[in-house]
Specification:
mainly alpha
Length: 225
């Protein structure tokens, strides 16, 4: 049986107003600091100093740098996945063909709004190639499963309308779209300037283009292996 790995979120109704503000400040500072410094080189004492709290207070909430990073990742994922659902659930009501026409604006706006959060997820994924304990896996599974994948419902609807290949598994295809969007976003934001110099264009343009290609592939009626 897994022991409970406690998360300290500023939205926790059990926390006092003072605690909520303190936790929110710590998480804000940690998120920005981790992106600037990198997870491997970050130090808890630096985060405490930047947040204006004692090291004892910081360790009262987060028992290690890894524990703090996990809490930041959970909060970041809630923001990103919540926005995914909001953006693509409303856009998907148009259908895949119509979604293709607005995907540029949707993707670019998303990248601009959540640049720091996406960068953090890239650093987190690289640092936590393997989770330290089964508790971490449990926390991440619970966080991700609390947000429905909007692409899954969209693909199912298009199959019922006979617009999408019936051989596609909506669940797997939806997760492919979800992960592809996030992973390419991580790549182009993490190495944006270097890629711009290498190829001569803003690599952010790759994100909506990839989505368009996937959408057209899903709309293709030919059977896929």
């Amino acid at each position: 049986m897994l022991s409970k790995l406690r998360l300290y979120d500023s939205d926790n109704p059990a926390a006092s107003l003072v605690q909520q503000k303190r936790i929110s400040l710590i998480l804000d500072v940690a998120e920005k600091y981790f992106v600037e410094q990198g997870l491997a080189e970050s130090k808890m004492e630096d985060i405490a100093d930047r947040a204006g709290v004692s090291r004892q207070t910081l360790y009262r909430y987060y028992r290690s740098k890894e524990h703090l990073a996990l809490n930041v990742e959970v909060r970041v994922l809630k923001k990103i996945l919540g926005r995914f659902v909001e953006l693509f659930s409303s856009a998907s009501l148009l259908g895949l063909k119509q979604l293709e026409h607005v995907i540029d604006e949707v993707c670019i706006d998303f990248l601009k709004e959540y640049e720091q959060q996406i960068l953090f997820t890239a650093l987190f994924d690289a640092f936590f190639v393997k989770y330290h304990t089964p508790e971490y896996i449990h926390v991440m599974k619970k966080t991700v499963s609390s947000f429905p994948n909007p692409f899954t419902d969209l693909i199912s609807r298009e199959q019922k309308r006979r617009n999408a290949s019936e051989t596609l598994n909506p669940l797997i295809t939806g997760e492919m779209l979800n992960h592809s969007l996030l992973s390419l976003s991580q790549r182009v934001l993490l190495r944006r300037e270097a890629l711009r110099e290498e190829y001569g264009f803003d690599p952010i343009e790759l994100v909506p283009l990839q989505m368009k290609i996937f959408i057209r592939g899903i709309l293709c009626r030919e059977d896929l292996d």
